Amino acid sequence: MLSAEEQMHIIKSGVAQIVPEDELLKKLKSGRSLRIKLGVDPTAPDIHIGHAVPLRKLRQFQDLGHTVVLIIGNGTALIGDPSGRNTTRPQLSSEEIAKNAQTYVDQAFKILDPEKTELRFNADWILSVDTKKLLELMSKFTVARILERDDFHNRYTNNQPISLHEFLYPVMQAFDSVEINADVELGGTDQLFNLLAGRELMEKCDMEPQVALTMPLLEGTDGVRKMSKSYGNYIGLTDKPEDIFGKCMSIPDEMIVKYCRLASSFSVEKCDAIEAGLEDGSVDPYKTKRELAANLVASYYDEEAAKAAEEHFDVVCKQGDVPDDIESYEGELKVNDEGNVYLAALLAEIKFAQSASDARRLIDSGAVKIGDDVVPAKAYNINPTDLKGKVLRSGKRKFMQF
């Protein structure tokens, strides 16, 4: 087993903050298997590699011999995490939460080792809390303490409503740490208050308090805004292999090291070498990006898929050719009263765009082709015969045979 100092070097790679760092080192020096907690609320069915950043760190802890406790917040999701919100989060139904939870777990185990993971559902203890227990937990925190949260503080000072049930969220997340006796809790930088609340509650329950470890938000493929489906700059865990590869190749060179540390399965030593090589010019950014893209595909599929995705990238993006194995449109084209197809709606239907408005932006930017011809800006309605026997193309990676 690695020494505590060697483990700390691996654990600190890519981390935003460890509070307090000396306590984590002390826990590691004890030589026991630590209990590492991550709680996730299943508020959406699909996750992208930005969501997977703490999962990657959990896998490092597993590889170091520690126990990972993945808590699916099917109880806390009924409250709704107020972190980073300026309005009350809409509450989900139990049915929506259950459906999202299963999808999340399936995707999480693409990264985590199921044999080394404790999978827990916090509804098992949260929904059975009686009034006496709830009052006991709430008495451990003051209103002033809860209002220290930036999101609550800002909403309060700006006279924006805060529902009383939202105050329960950090208390219930803290209760999770007590319930599973966490040594370390992971979260994004926006979760620091919640993580420290867990530490505080454990202390007040006469337990050894957990260490809070936060991971930075991962910027999207544009290298500017945080990764988000709403921005269209995400790499989804369920994306096709060729899309994962192609999207990764589009990231700015300045993001290579961060993607290596936060999103890949590269060792910390390899990430250190890449960072040093990029700084002194001994490492080629383009070749490194190809290796990173292949690693991401192999992580979520396999080595064979990674090789095929790389070949697809060379054919489509480097040579500009249309691949041989493109999908054919099987539906019936919808025409309007003038007998034309609304191209923006068609692009959204076949998942080339997130919405018709997004599709119009693609068309106006010259990113859409029919055959070899670029669709002119504002040409949203086309004759269906223009598509017959042609390949509809959006950007460098999306093709559909008509």
Structural features, described:
The chain has 17 helices and 12 strands. It is globular, with a radius of gyration of 24 Å. With 402 residues, the chain is an alpha/beta fold. It has a 6-stranded mixed sheet, sandwiched between helices. The protein has a 4-stranded antiparallel sheet with strand order 9-8-11-12, with no helix packed on it. A two-stranded antiparallel sheet has the order 7-10. Helix 10 links the parallel strand 5 (184-188) and strand 6. 43% of the residues lie in helices and 12% in strands. Helix 1 packs across helix 2 and helix 16 packs across helix 17 (356-364). The mean pLDDT is 89.
Largest sheet: 6 strands, mixed
Order of helices and strands: HEHEHEHEHHHHHEHEHHHHHEHHEEEEE
Tell me the span between the first and last alpha carbons. Answer: 58 Å
Beta-strand content bin:
5-15%
- In DSSP terms (H or I, runs of 4 or more residues), the helix count works out at 17
